[in-house]
Specification:
alpha+beta; Uridine Diphospho-n-acetylenolpyruvylglucosamine Reductase, domain 1; five-stranded mixed sheet; 9 helices; cell wall biogenesis/degradation; FAD; peptidoglycan synthesis; FAD-bd_PCMH
Amino acid sequence: MANSVPASLKPFNTFGVEATCNELISFNDEPSIQSWLKAEKPALDSLFILGGGSNLLLLGHIPLIFLQANIQGIEYLEQNNGKDEVWVKVGAGVNWHQLVLDTLDKGYSGLENLSLIPGNVGAAPIQNIGAYGVELQERFINLQAIELATGHIQEFSAEDCQFGYRDSIFKKELKGRFVITQVTLRLNKNLQPHIEYGPLKQELEGETSITAKKVSDAVIAIRQSKLPDPAQLGNAGSFFKNPIVTEEQYQMLLDAFPELVAYSVGSGHYKIAAGWLIEKAGLKGYRQGDAGVHEKQALVLVNYGHASGQDILQVAGQVRDKVLELFGVKLEPEVWIIGEQQIFLS
């Protein structure tokens, strides 16, 4: 059944900003979504699909109907393909970190590097979440989604999703056209560790026996040491993407700033640490009213208590402009910024 709840969005965004929508409806299963779509026949441009609210910046009143697929359930599927694999089929409303912990409790590996990422499972493929050298697409089998225009259920493979860096087809051509209901991921029975990432490698230094649980614990320790808990300080994690530049741009930056934090992503391009750029610009800890840049992690913008979405957006714009002025690199937001006019930081 569908349960209509009050239109306040403050409890549904980790920035904790005051925001409202026309209506917020939570669904517990696929038939409820299909029945509602059939009965209401809503215009696609009147809808917004809400996940866990951990990757959003909301600006005031948003004159849309917010839909949330709060579908639960975790099912493990043994594979008889001769490989060291188990698949896990997960409801879109399952909390991502709780899924990671459940897989570890069952003795499986594959998601440990993605520990403590906020949000729900249904939003993970949209963003192609990633951390500490691992991205969702490496573990992805398929997803199930309902087309809002027809109510039909459709399956998407990894190829169909067109994954990119913090990107997928659901942020481009299919944006706002489907609600994801289930995600299936590939796990391993035996650990294939990915601990090359600098801080993770340091955290595990001295460990003689690496386990998936130890990798997860190390990731959690690193994240908690530098990322604020949204329950204590409103934030959406990394606000900006790490920009990718050409080799020529990289060399120019490296000549000017030998301590530049960057690494090759192949094809003559380099990924620059956005947090380093912001900190080097002198903006780490910058604050304007109740909106600001976190004092420990410059990539995170925070709400110190009573900031509005517009306040945080203004700080984001100042950060973007300062980095562009000093380094000639344009930062792009990783979070979705949505308001009455569908305003995005550009």
